[in-house]
Amino acid sequence: MESNCSSLLSAVCEVLPNPKLLLPDDTSLEKLLDWFKDLINHNDGQYIKHYQPCLLEFLHTMTKSEAVDSTVFSFTLKLTGLLASKEDSFNWLQERGVLLHMFDPDSWHEIELWKNASVRGGWLQGLWNMLQYQQAVGFFCKTGLIKLLLSLQNDESFFLSSLTNQILVHVLNLVTLPVLSSSIESDAQTRPPVSTDCRSVTAEVMSHVTRSLSSEEQAAVASGLRLLAVTVEQCRDPVKGQLWEHALEPLEVLVNLHDDSLNLSVMAVLQAAAKSPFFTNPEYKVETLIDAMLYSKNTNESLQCAALILQVDSCPDHLKKKATDVVVRPLLCVTASSTIVQDGCDSLLANQLSQKASCVPLLTQSLSSIADFVFKNSLDDVPIRSITSSVIQLLKMCIGHQPSTFLRTAASHVIGCCKIQKYSLDVLQSLADSKESVDFLQEALTVLLLYLQCPDTHATVFKKTYQAVLKWLGVSSSSPTVLETISHDLYPLLKKLVCDGRWEVRDSTLEFIMQLTAAFKGNPEYNEAFRNSGMISVLLISLSDGESYVQASAVSALGEALTDTPLCASFQEEAVTHLLSILSKDAESFPRRAVMKVFTSWLKSPLSFTGLDNHLSSVLSLGSSDFDWEVKVQTLEIVDMLMDNSLSCSRSSQGRESMKQPLHRLMGLGLFDLLLKCLFDCDRPVSQKACALLIKLRSVLRETDSSEHSDDLTLDISSCSWGEEVLQRFHRKQQPEEWSSVKNGAPDSLKKIHLCEILELLELEDMQCILSLSSDHVINSPRSVMEDILSAAQQSELNVVDCY
Amino acid sequence: MKLYCLSGHPTLPCNVLKFKSTTIMLDCGLDTSSALYFLPLPLVHSPRLSKLPGWVSKDGTVNLEKELKECAGRVFVDTQPEFCLPERELLDLSTVDVILISNYHCMMALPYITEHTGFSGTVYATEPTFQIGRLLMEELVTFMERVPKAQSATCWKNKEIQRMLPGPLKDAVDVWSWKRCYNMQEVNSALSKVQLVGYSQKVELFGAVQVTPLSSGYSLGSSNWIIQSHYEKVSYVSGSSLLTTHPQPMDQSSLKNSDVLILTGLTQIPTANPDGMLGEFCSNLAMTIRAGGNVLVPCYSSGVIYDLLECLYQFMDSANLGTTPFYFISPVANSSLEFSQIFAEWLCQNKQSKVYLPEPPFPHAELIQTNKLKHYPSIHGEFSSEFRQPCVVFTGHPSLRFGDVVHFMELWGKSSLNTIIFTEPDFSYLDALAPYQPLAMKCVYCPIDTRLNFHQVSKFLKEVQPLHVVCPEQYTQPPPSQSHRADLMLELQPPPMAYRRCSVLGLPFRRRYERIHLLPELAKSLVPSEIKPGVSVATVSAVLQSKDNKHVLQPVPKPVPVPPSKKRKRLMEEVPDLLSPKPLLSGAVPLEAFLASLHKSGITEVKVEETADGHILHLQAEDALIQLEEDATHIVCDNNEPLRTALRDLVLRFLQKL
């Protein structure tokens, strides 16, 4: 194939400069680039031999052609950079002036092209591709491209400006490389010393940053801040420090300006600085700046800043403590009762909490930060107790259950507010892991049950409530009070909620029942309570729910409930019948997938499922003839398990002789027929899995004594869908010349073939190899892409003829 | 303008507005919650109820065995239930000119008002209100008359005795005003006074005011009313809803810019969101049916039941209730279900458009066709042979004191498999259940009240911006059971004027203008003169004619030339003598310029004194005073008429004449 590619490529290189060419799709050129990148990076000899001359020639042509399509031109720029990333091509390109022509827009035939964002993007990509070694950097510095690059730093396209930032960081790291520490000193000695050009590049960047930060234009300031954040985070030390020194003065001005629109960008810079080693250096004033943000009059700003500080791991404790106070304050303030004088709740905060527009965002931000740090357990002296009781109070307030608080108006803003409910539930959930949680167990469960009872609870809030309930029940899962809460309060509620009109609620309820059963697995008291609660019959009724998602969840919940719970056979039998009817009748695939998963888990379970054993062959036949590939793969999962159970077991225990019976049993279940059918399935994952299983089976059979391969293992191929395929292979291998004569009908002797023979006939390894390739490997191959381009080129010529 | 408040019930209002020369009654709701003090009326003989012990005071001094019975630890009055009527002593009801009805629940006291009080006016209501109101009244009468109770109980009402009674009976107020239910004849007579109106139709009352019903979105044909004259606008907002249920949506924009807005009929359960309650209703219903129990839904035979049926129609399939029968039992069940389908123009847009399709607006028609919903006039007859369990029964009355529901309570109350689901918010469910205790049946309270809640009403008031709001006092503080919920009350600036039963409020605005028509020929004769840019004035001499509260200015008839005959003479005498009026002056006398002109006329010695209202000019040589004030000028000079005239002319030079 590769030899043909070079002729294709030269044809493509000929048509690409044509400005009238209509490309088959936007991605074709990208795919070509990816291919080149692969070849170049793997330093493939083939590339050098076959393609390089043609590509270099193409670039040379492009420098001369006057009218070009912007997409193709952008591709050319990227390709130039890619080729220039290798020194020999770099020299060739430089000698012929291609590099200078491509990277200097002033020398382009159409200067208008620069206005096109995709061309500018191509220029940036090309530049980045090229700047891989000192020589290229030297070229970059000498030609003064830095000015153009810096102008793109504030590009109107956000993608381009952020790409520019990345390149600038890359450039700064490259130009300052020689003065690096001793680890690569030896390497540095071989390099030329830092040239004045390079130094001027660094100076340009620094003055650009200073200029941007003190600019009147907000867009320029914002982009300057973004660059600063990226450089502080990713650049090496001397240059990073220098940059910070340059930027410090205008940055201080910006921090004290407290401009809302720049807040996030300033924060990003401070966060980067806080993570860097010069955080501790007082000269760099990082802490002063953070302090200024933290105690800003803008509560929102200080909250954001506090949240940011809490994310920095290396932050000193005193700062973390300050940040924690700021984060927790809105929550404590809104839930403070009138009798307690709140020193933390200043009038500014109280005022903001009294207004609906600011109350909800403030609280949600506070709550999300709390959830974050409680989850990370980042501080030891966090007032977990007061946070827990405040969150519980806030949750009560949200459903109108909490008597008057210090801020009456704030209370009315939070009533019925889903957002706050969800965030509070998140916090409550993460608080379940704290040491103090046991003391709040009853209170937390009470408020969570209130949420489950409340008819106005939103479906998404239900989901969060369930997660929290599960977490809190786990706090003390063996305590009798918890079990009592479950059987007296929770079960009746769940029974009602599986009848809810909203399918989302029914669905999350059933999911919760499943998780609850899983969480209490092996707890005999719980099992007892569950059995007596009548929940099983509730689950059985839910199997016929009208909504397929709910049905699937009911299937999973029932499966989980019966997996390690010893129940009477009649229940098992009823459940299996129900599930089989879903598998055979249900139109939607989710419940069927769930059924197969349940069967799998039952088969894995140590408890025996006598109910299922009698139905195994119908499970397999229904599963393998399903329309849904996931169901089929799941069926193969069961097959895998059955094979493992019967073959490995007998191999290990009684030696080779006993293989006959298990093989016979598997044959009886129709397992081999199923595997072969799946091997030729139209869905790739199915055939892949079947192929793997057949390989496994073959190795087992190869190991066993051939005398054991009785006639029982002979398969009748004439009645099978896969028979034809096997027959073809059989003949191709046996008597290629006779093949044509028997093509129209198999002689009688060929109706039956032994399993071992079939497995040897099928080149399973080859099949596996082909199946492992992604399904689009053919259409994405470079050959296919180039053929597409060429046929598009022909088409566009034809169209021109057609029209006139 | 005055408002007489005859009912203290916020959702069953009865107010009388005196506006201009008209007396308008706004709604006449009947508070039936007094029925809760009475024993249920069983349709089928109930051994339990018939064997109840009579009540005797502990010391044995008072024996009311015949009137009061002890049941489940409480004392109930054993006679036909009585209802609490609107106040009838506060003003003479025969002076009421019109009654405006806003919805069918708010007209149940109509026969008490229109009959036996001397009322001779007109009642205005929309057609669905009228028709469904009739059904509800008929149903009420049937419920009562089906179980006749001859004796009436009055002894317990005696103040001295009532004080000694136990429990809630002791605290019942105004028991003497309670009355038994009206009869069919009174209903018919009352309804014969109803005049039907359509939304946005303008009805003139004696030429003085115009009343207009607007859609209120609460129930079929429910309306708010605008009562307006040329310069004043009063809005009356009763049971309104912003939810998308079956009726036409609420018309809010027409209520803008009212001088006074009378706000009644907000939701009775402000903490329960109707959607949540509907969900609760469905899940409890499904849970009971799945467990093999029956569901009893005590409800009115019109209104929320349509929405419940529609909701269940959608819910049934997803909850596997396909085969469970629904029964709707009411003397007017059939009419109610059918009426709802024919009032197309009163339905919401979505349902209206279905009228043009071959499917009925409400899905309950399909439920009936497919035999899932069956309706019967009563438990007797067909129903008893077709009745199949488990089932869902919708029946009245929600007070559980009369109607077919009493029978089902006796029948199903003992089994914990069954559930009673309360959806009507008018009665306390615990009080309603009191005579049936002990009860094994599960009770679920999901009151569905689609009327405006406080959040919606404060938004609505912000939108329509009335100058003053009048409302029942219950709306000015949080409900007693939830005193911490500051969000469950009206907080307005200026604060609303609150009323209670028997309040008489003077509404806080004064009528300042009246519209008068000028006839064209009179207008033609006017000579306007501009006194400042854009403002011209003219004097008018005319005859004012007032008839039917309309005022017209007509030209003064010209004096008829000398009568040729005697016949004309009488006419001449009636024509008033026309005196041409003196010109009117306007403008101000500028001090400096006036002094200059005095000087020009030879008056030089002028001493100017400043006063609170203007200036006093002493003309010392002439011994005269000129008082220049904002609205008057006086010239004081003794017996010097030429000087006065000269000075007057000088003053007049600075003024304009009309």
Automatic annotation (TrEMBL), chain A:
GO terms under cellular component: cytoplasm; nucleus
GO BP, one annotated term: cell population proliferation
Location(s), subcellular: Cytoplasm
Top-level division of the source organism's lineage: Eukaryota
Main location: cytoplasm
Gene3D superfamilies: Leucine-rich Repeat Variant (1.25.10.10)
Keywords of the record: Cytoplasm
Keyword Cytoplasm listed: yes
Family statement drawn from the similarity comment of this UniProt entry: Belongs to the BRAT1 family.
PANTHER family: BRCA1-ASSOCIATED ATM ACTIVATOR 1
Protein name (Swiss-Prot/TrEMBL): BRCA1-associated ATM activator 1
UniProtKB/TrEMBL annotation, chain B:
InterPro entries, per the entry: Beta_Casp, Integrator_9su, IntS9-like_C, Metallo-B-lactamas, RibonucZ/Hydroxyglut_hydro
All copies of domain Beta-Casp, residue ranges: 305-433
Gene Ontology CC: one annotated term: integrator complex
Record-level GO BP terms: negative regulation of transmembrane receptor protein serine/threonine kinase signaling pathway; regulation of cellular response to growth factor stimulus; RNA polymerase II transcription initiation surveillance; snRNA 3'-end processing
Pfam families named in the record: Beta-Casp, IntS9_C, Lactamase_B_6
SMART domains from the UniProt entry: Beta-Casp
Protein's cellular compartments: Cytoplasm; Nucleus
Keywords, comma-separated and alphabetical: Cytoplasm, Nucleus
Domain of life from the UniProt record: Eukaryota
Main localisation: cytoplasm
Family indicated by similarity: Belongs to the metallo-beta-lactamase superfamily. RNA-metabolizing metallo-beta-lactamase-like family. INTS9 subfamily.
Identification of the protein by name: Integrator complex subunit 9
UniProt source species: Astyanax mexicanus (Blind cave fish)
